[in-house]
Amino acid sequence: MNERISIEEIIRIYKIDHSFLDQLIDLELLHPETDNRIRYIIYEELPHLERFANWHYDLDINLPGIEIIHRLLNQLEDLKNQNRRLLQNVSKFENWEDAEI
């Protein structure tokens, strides 16, 4: 089982609005687990929550903006990974060509 923290505890610790957290969940930016009618966020998602809260409360970015920024950052990360794989394939191909000569 993943380490997790209850949503009520998150609200208390991070001092964020319950409605803000609910909206993040509705937009599927966070994925709560439910156990005995208590909703939890897994620890792995806490960095995302912290980032979203900073964007919203410190930078005054609204929820649609947070959703767009998050999606673009994920796309950027995917492109970086894809580029890394392509460069590895090119490197393998170049090494293979050198072996053929």
TrEMBL record:
Pfam families: MerR_2
Protein's name in the database: MerR HTH family regulatory protein
Source organism superkingdom: Bacteria
Keywords: Coiled coil
The organism of origin for this protein: Epilithonimonas hungarica
Coiled coil, from the record: 69-96
